[in-house]
């Protein structure tokens, strides 16, 4: 990362493209949670309404939960590396330099992936604990 | 690939060096600049005062109006409590009581809680971001006038005994079958306000993303700005499902299309889903901004930076997402499959975690700081005590088996008031005490404030704590009276006494707020010793917001950049002047806030008032089935809005770039993604697409919920016409984008031909779509009704799109839209991207789904 | 759960009070971080996981299949139409505004509604379940002790929502069977002169257009079935007691007692009223 620079349009766009990924990463964890949640709710609702095989759907959704957790884990790992706290020792990223912003976005994405993982585990519990459509 | 427009790029040194900033500004230059700036930002005097659009004026009116609505709704609550003080009371009739509680809930939610967030944000956000104003001041003013007209209309109905009376969530069939205009007043009046809310949300998001001071990267913006961003985003996804629901509901009320009528294939559950997909995020839309106020007060009180800034950002963003997975916990007793209830129970527990993190981050900040107890902090402490209580009962209610008992009882009434008082009322009052010096340059009374706090706090608990027990002992909510001897009598009496103690507290607060303070001394600047930019404001007040827009490199610039204040006052920073006598603010890049443009912002005007009045007419007349005046009023509203846009937005500037201070030359015009207008359209259309998606959800919901949807032997839409419509929308899109590209390439005549052809093709597409369903009988069954609803939705959007295309054509003919200055057509083609996708989806649902299902 | 909640509330608020009021100096940042991670993540995750597993495991209980008897309840504005379907029955036993259940057996209650949404709730016996027009929901109840409990509508359903209640009586199975048999029988004929006059009035005033009294020519199905109204615990869906006085008050003041109710107020002479009330009170 460079220090602050003159605001030329091409550089601005390049930098935006680079941090675009970071901004996206912030929401990626929660988005995986949301996709998993919608899949669980939608599929179970249709299955129960139309009398499909609920047990098969439950197993399928549990596999999806596993996949969601792997996805969130990957996001978390990438974000952890971006935060880079082990090397900088900076927990708060409160300065106004470009690298602080970069680390901060990593930190936020990392924390959000923790919350998303907890969310996915919680939402999977009913699949394990509740049997049928009743 | 789009050719560049040839507009200049930013030129000159950035960021400013210390030497540049240290160089003094000569005194005479300072004075000349200040007087020009003052003239440009002067607030209109006398009766023209209501034409003001500046955020400080509009924000103040907005806050006061919301406060008045809140007090009226509070008085209704007192009448409710009086009626319930003793069993079998006959102070008010059942009908009047039902109107009162419906209006109490509706007004508190739609006329106080959400507008208050927008009001406070419009008032404070530019200050916190060192901006002169919001990016679209006239839009704020328009939103305010819409809110005022709609709010007076809705709340006024109670004085004519015509108020809605089916509860604030208006469950059909009770609400759809209700006689009299009550339900229509609720639907149309509040839809009108919801549209205004979305407008404010768009403005706040764009303001946060594009109007920060140079150097204020995302990792150092004030936490309040983060919350505004999250809450604005939530409004965009939460309000549209309700608007879609209102649309269906009003079609049922006005034309008897049976969306929620089970005898003709409809389903009342669809309303419950759409309402609560809005309703639960809405609780967090109310709660998060108030917590944001706490996030501004606590560092000041602890005299240190907030601890766990990233954690709070996480908690805001996480809560924002999770809050969309909770809505069914309002529907635990509707007989949905247990496993579905389980998902929502789980998500409702999960959302506790980010909320808890928020509270512990505050705790940690206080721990690591040296606390100086102040009046705002007293209210924040009260908020915490009340909110944690509401949160813990929330944890219990999220467990479905507990909710089966407590649902729809006074336990819920207690729970929701604990969360809303702790999560909204108390923090907002803390905010009033904290920010009052910023707004009025006076302090509120410490003594009265303490009285108000203790009266409100003890009254509140006296009123609502017993209600937990009343509910657990079986008293349902929304009963106008109750039989004696069930153990509820004395609990209700205590609650009523508590309500009046609380009312005394509010009266004290309001008196302190409005009592004349002429003789009171003005405050010194930054009376609380805060660290964020709003405390740079001048005492006595100046309408310009900031004298010059500073270069910010820290989270608490007033603590960490010691020379900033004097340089700011001297006009050392950006935009210290108004050479042309026009209002301007700085537009910066989204992530790192590098200056990219000097944006002209609009000044005082009557047009927003007229536009709001006519828009109000278009919504209010249909309540009484006066459709002709409604259509005339709607047409006039469109004329006003076109006039407003034509005369005040995307004006061709006198020079392509100008000196923004510190040697930096910035462009004065931007089109496409570089312009704030483009962002506003993008964000608006995201909300619009959500509303459309809700309608499509409705279609599939009917399929899931009913074994015969579409019913056997039902007439379908005409496939040939749908294919024609799809083709027309695709061609229209190509013509619109083609016009944009040709115009940018300097080929103005072909671009104009495209702009003549496109509206004709779009109108043909809309006509074909409506033609495809015109033979269906929407009142006979929900299947033809939902097809009609989708077709109308697309047709109305096409109508708006056609007006926009013609606006661009006129712009091209009269020199407002040129190859160099082409913001309008960028915005219009963005609008059409969204509408084209919606139209194609609608064609697919109408044409293909009956086969597929 | 309550104790836990009180404890957590005290913990958080105690800490807040301590931080803001009592303590003079600043803590180390490291402690602050521990508070944030421990209090913000670890503690809630543990507590919530335990609660969630517990809650989810109980979630399907209210909808377990019953032991045979099915009671079908339809919510009306503002009363309850009740049908008993013993196992294998071809036709139901019709009654209104009172639910009787055998103790020790799980009874399925099938719920639906006439026009608007209601919610069926007997707080002492279990949770609530909403009643929708055009759809059937189910809740099963397992009363453990004989007794009379109060039930009521929990979902706002219009002007007289407050007065839509009923008595729920849990009985020993043998008593229940006896009661059901008598409930299935036709109405007893009037036993006194006053009651006989009341029966004639019942017909001449047109009460039978809405109310059924089985075994007579009154077969209306708009309002509650009155075949055994004299044996019920309450009158007007939990509004009054079934006494001659209350019956007279009810017939002459429906609009006051139950705003917007469909039953008109009858402007009768006092002795006519007491005759009619005597007839109804005698319908044991």
UniProtKB/TrEMBL annotation, chain A:
Q: What is this protein called?
A: Transmembrane protein
Q: Where are the transmembrane segments?
A: 31-49, 61-80, 108-130
Key words of the record? Membrane, Transmembrane, Transmembrane helix
UniProtKB/TrEMBL annotation, chain B:
Instruction: Describe the location of the Cytochrome oxidase subunit I profile domain by residue ranges.
Output: 35-553
Annotated region Disordered: where? 1-23
Give the matching InterPro entries. Cyt_c_oxase-like_su1_dom, Cyt_c_oxase-like_su1_sf, Cyt_C_Oxase_1, Cyt_c_Oxase_su1_BS, Cyt_c_oxidase_su1_bac, Cyt_c_oxidase_su3-like_sf, Cyt_c_oxidase_su3_a-hlx
EC number(s) recorded for this UniProt protein: 7.1.1.9
Residues passing through the membrane, by range: 61-86, 106-129, 141-160, 185-209, 221-243, 283-302, 309-329, 341-366, 378-400, 420-439, 451-473, 493-514, 630-648, 679-705, 717-739, 751-774, 786-809, 830-849
Q: Which GO terms describe its molecular function?
A: cytochrome-c oxidase activity; heme binding; metal ion binding; oxidoreductase activity
Q: Does the keyword Iron apply?
A: yes
Q: Does the keyword Heme apply?
A: yes
Where does the UniProt entry say this protein principally localizes? membrane
Principal EC category = translocase
Which Gene Ontology terms of cellular component type are present? Answer: plasma membrane
Q: What's the protein's topology in the membrane? A: Multi-pass membrane protein
Pfam families, alphabetically? COX1
Q: In which pathway does it act?
A: Energy metabolism; oxidative phosphorylation
Quote the Gene3D superfamilies the UniProt record gives. Cytochrome c oxidase, subunit III, four-helix bundle, Cytochrome c oxidase-like, subunit I domain
Q: Which reaction does it catalyse?
A: 4 Fe(II)-[cytochrome c] + O2 + 8 H(+)(in) = 4 Fe(III)-[cytochrome c] + 2 H2O + 4 H(+)(out)
GO biological process: any one? respiratory electron transport chain
What are the subcellular locations of this protein? Cell membrane
Keywords annotated in UniProt: Cell membrane, Copper, Electron transport, Heme, Iron, Membrane, Metal-binding, Oxidoreductase, Respiratory chain, Translocase, Transmembrane, Transmembrane helix, Transport
Task: Identify its protein family.
Answer: Belongs to the heme-copper respiratory oxidase family.
Tell me the protein's name.
cytochrome-c oxidase
Source organism of this protein record: Pseudooceanicola marinus
Q: What is the gene called?
A: ctaD
From TrEMBL, chain C:
Gene Ontology molecular function terms on file: copper ion binding; cytochrome-c oxidase activity; heme binding; oxidoreductase activity
Q: Which part of the chain is the Cytochrome c domain?
A: 193-284
InterPro entries (alphabetical): CcO_II, CcO_II-like_C, Copper_CuA, Cupredoxin, CuRO_CcO_Caa3_II, Cyt_c-like_dom, Cyt_c-like_dom_sf
Q: Which UniProt keywords apply?
A: Copper, Electron transport, Heme, Iron, Membrane, Metal-binding, Oxidoreductase, Transmembrane, Transmembrane helix, Transport
Any idea of its EC number? Answer: 1.9.3.1
Q: Which Pfam families does the record associate with it?
A: COX2 (PF00116), Cytochrom_C (PF00034)
Q: Which residues cross the membrane?
A: 34-56
- Domain named Cytochrome oxidase subunit II copper A binding: which ranges? 66-182
The protein's enzyme class: oxidoreductase
* One Gene Ontology cellular component annotation held by this UniProt entry: membrane
What reaction gets catalysed by this protein? 4 Fe(II)-[cytochrome c] + O2 + 8 H(+)(in) = 4 Fe(III)-[cytochrome c] + 2 H2O + 4 H(+)(out)
Instruction: Return the PROSITE patterns for the record.
Output: COX2, COX2_CUA, CYTC
Is Cytoplasm included in the keywords of this UniProt record?
no
Q: Which Gene Ontology terms describe the biological processes this protein takes part in?
A: ATP synthesis coupled electron transport
| Location in or out of the cell | Membrane
Family indicated by similarity? Belongs to the cytochrome c oxidase subunit 2 family.
Q: What is this protein called?
A: Cytochrome c oxidase subunit 2
Q: What is the lineage of its organism?
A: Bacteria, Pseudomonadati, Pseudomonadota, Alphaproteobacteria, Rhodobacterales
């Amino acid at each position: 990362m460079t220090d602050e620079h003159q605001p030329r349009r091409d550089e601005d766009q390049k930098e935006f493209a680079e941090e675009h990924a970071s901004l996206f990463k912030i929401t990626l964890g929660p988005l995986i949670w949301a996709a998993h949640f919608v899949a669980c709710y939608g599929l179970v609702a249709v299955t129960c309404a139309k009398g499909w095989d609920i047990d098969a759907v439950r197993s399928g959704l549990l596999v999806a939960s596993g996949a969601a957790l792997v996805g969130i884990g990957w996001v978390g790992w990438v974000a952890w590396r971006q935060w880079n706290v082990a090397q900088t020792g900076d927990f708060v990223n409160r300065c106004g330099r470009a690298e602080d912003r970069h680390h901060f976005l990593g930190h936020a994405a990392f924390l959000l992936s923790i919350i998303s993982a907890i969310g996915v585990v919680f939402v999977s519990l009913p699949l394990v604990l509740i049997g049928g459509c009743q | 690939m789009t050719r560049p427009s040839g507009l200049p790029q930013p030129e000159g040194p950035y960021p400013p060096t210390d030497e540049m900033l240290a160089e003094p500004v000569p005194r005479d230059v300072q004075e000349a600049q200040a007087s020009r700036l003052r003239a440009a930002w002067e607030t209109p005097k006398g009766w023209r005062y209501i034409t003001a659009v500046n955020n400080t004026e509009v924000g103040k009116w907005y806050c006061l109006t919301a406060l008045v609505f809140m007090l009226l709704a509070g008085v209704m609550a007192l009448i409710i409590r009086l009626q319930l003080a003793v069993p079998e009371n006959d102070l008010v009739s059942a009908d009047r009581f039902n109107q009162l509680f419906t209006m109490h809930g509706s007004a508190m939610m739609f006329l106080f809680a959400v507008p208050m967030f927008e009001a406070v944000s419009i008032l404070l956000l530019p200050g916190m971001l060192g901006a002169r104003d919001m990016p679209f001041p006239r839009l704020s003013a328009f939103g305010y006038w819409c809110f005022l007209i709609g709010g007076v209309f809705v709340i006024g109905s109670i004085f004519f005994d015509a108020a809605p009376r089916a509860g604030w969530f208006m469950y059909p069939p009770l609400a759809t079958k209700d006689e009299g205009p009550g339900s229509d007043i609720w639907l149309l009046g509040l839809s009108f306000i919801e549209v205004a809310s979305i407008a404010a949300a768009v403005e706040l998001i764009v303001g946060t993303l594009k109007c920060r001071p140079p150097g204020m990267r995302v990792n150092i913006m004030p936490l309040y700005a983060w919350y505004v961003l999250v809450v604005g985003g939530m409004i965009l996804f939460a309000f549209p499902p309700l608007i879609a629901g209102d649309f269906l509901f009003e079609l049922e009320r006005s034309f008897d299309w049976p969306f929620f009528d089970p005898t003709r294939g409809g389903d009342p559950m669809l309303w419950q889903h759409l309402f609560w997909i809005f309703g639960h995020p809405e609780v967090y839309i109310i709660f998060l901004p108030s917590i944001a106020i706490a996030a501004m007060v606590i560092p000041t009180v602890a005299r240190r930076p907030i601890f766990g800034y990233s954690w709070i950002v996480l908690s805001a963003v996480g809560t924002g997402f999770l809050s969309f997975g909770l809505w069914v916990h309002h529907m635990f007793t509707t007989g949905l499959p247990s496993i579905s209830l389980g998902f929502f129970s789980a998500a409702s527990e999960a959302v506790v975690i980010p909320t808890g993190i928020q509270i512990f981050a505050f705790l940690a900040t206080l721990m690591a700081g040296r606390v100086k107890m102040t009046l705002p902090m007293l209210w924040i402490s009260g908020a915490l005590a009340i909110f944690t209580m509401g949160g813990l009962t929330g944890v219990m209610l999220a467990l479905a088996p507990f909710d089966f008992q407590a649902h729809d009882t006074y336990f819920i009434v207690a729970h929701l008031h604990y969360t809303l008082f702790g999560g909204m009322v108390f923090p907002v009052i803390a905010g009033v005490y904290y920010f009052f010096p910023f707004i009025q340059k006076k302090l509120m009374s410490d003594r009265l404030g303490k009285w108000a706090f203790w009266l409100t706090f003890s009254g509140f608990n006296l009123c609502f704590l017993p209600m937990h027990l009343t509910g657990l002992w079986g008293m349902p909510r929304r009963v106008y009276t109750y039989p004696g001897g069930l153990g509820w009598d004395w609990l209700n009496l205590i609650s009523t006494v508590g309500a009046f103690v609380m009312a005394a507290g509010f009266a004290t607060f309001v008196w302190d707020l409005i009592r004349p303070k002429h003789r009171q001394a003005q405050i010194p600047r930054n009376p609380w010793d805060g660290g964020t930019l709003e405390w740079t404001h001048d005492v006595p007040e100046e309408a310009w917001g900031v004298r010059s827009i500073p270069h910010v490199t820290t989270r608490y610039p007033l603590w960490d950049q010691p020379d900033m204040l004097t340089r700011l006052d001297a006009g050392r920073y950006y935009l210290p002047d108004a050479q042309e006598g026009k209002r301007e603010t700085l537009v910066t890049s989204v992530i790192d806030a590098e200056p990219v443009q000097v944006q002209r912002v609009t000044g005082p005007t009557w047009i927003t008032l007229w536009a709001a009045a006519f828009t109000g007419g278009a919504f209010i007349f249909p309540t009484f089935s006066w459709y002709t005046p409604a259509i005339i009023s709607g047409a006039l509203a469109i004329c006003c809005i076109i006039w407003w846009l034509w005369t005040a937005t995307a004006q061709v500037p006198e020079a392509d770039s100008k000196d923004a201070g510190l040697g930096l030359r910035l462009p004065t015009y931007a089109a496409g993604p570089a312009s704030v207008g483009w962002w506003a359209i993008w964000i608006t259309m995201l909300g619009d697409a959500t509303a459309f998606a809700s309608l499509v959800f409705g279609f599939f919901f009917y399929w899931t919920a009913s074994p015969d949807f579409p019913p056997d032997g039902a007439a379908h839409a005409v496939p040939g016409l749908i294919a024609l419509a799809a083709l027309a929308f695709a061609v229209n899109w190509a013509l619109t984008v083609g016009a944009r590209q040709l115009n940018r390439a300097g080929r103005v005549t072909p671009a104009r031909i495209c702009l003549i052809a496109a509206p004709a093709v779009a109108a043909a597409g809309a006509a074909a779509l409506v033609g495809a369903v015109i033979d269906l009988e929407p009142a006979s069954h929900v299947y033809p009704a939902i097809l009609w609803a989708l077709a109308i939705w697309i047709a109305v959007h096409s109508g708006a799109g056609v007006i926009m295309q013609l606006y661009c054509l006129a712009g091209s003919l009269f020199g407002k839209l040129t190859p160099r200055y082409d913001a309008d057509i960028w915005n219009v083609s963005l609008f059409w991207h969204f509408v084209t996708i919606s139209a194609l989806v609608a064609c697919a649902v109408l044409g293909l789904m009956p086969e597929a299902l | 759960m309550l104790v836990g909640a009180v404890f957590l509330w005290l913990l958080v608020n105690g800490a807040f009070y301590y931080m803001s009021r009592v303590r003079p100096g600043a803590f180390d940042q490291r402690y602050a971080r521990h508070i944030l991670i421990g209090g913000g993540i670890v503690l809630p995750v543990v507590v919530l996981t335990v609660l969630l597993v517990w809650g989810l495991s109980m979630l399907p209980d209210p909808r377990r299949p019953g032991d045979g008897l099915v009671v079908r309840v339809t919510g009306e504005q503002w009363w309850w139409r009740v049908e008993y379907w013993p196992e294998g029955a071809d036709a139901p036993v019709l009654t209104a505004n009172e639910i009787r259940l055998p103790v020790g057996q799980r009874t399925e209650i099938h719920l639906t509604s006439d026009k608007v949404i209601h919610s069926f709730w007997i707080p002492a016996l279990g949770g609530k379940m909403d009643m929708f027009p055009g759809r059937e929901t189910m809740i099963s109840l397992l009363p453990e002790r004989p007794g009379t409990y109060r039930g009521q509508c929990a979902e706002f359903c219009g002007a007289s929502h407050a007065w839509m209640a009923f008595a729920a009586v849990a009985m020993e199975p043998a008593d229940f069977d006896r009661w059901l048999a008598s409930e299935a029988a036709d109405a007893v004929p009037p036993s006194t002169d006053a009651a006989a006059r009341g029966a004639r009035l019942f017909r001449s005033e047109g009460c039978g257009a809405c109310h059924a009294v089985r075994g007579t020519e009154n077969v209306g199905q708009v309002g509650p079935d009155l075949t055994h109204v004299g044996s019920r615990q309450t009158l007007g869906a939990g509004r009054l007691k079934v006494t001659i006085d209350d019956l007279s008050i009810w017939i002459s003041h429906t609009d006051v007692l139950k705003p917007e109710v469909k039953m008109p107020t009858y402007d009768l002479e006092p002795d006519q009223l007491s005759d009619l009330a005597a007839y109804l009170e005698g319908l044991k």
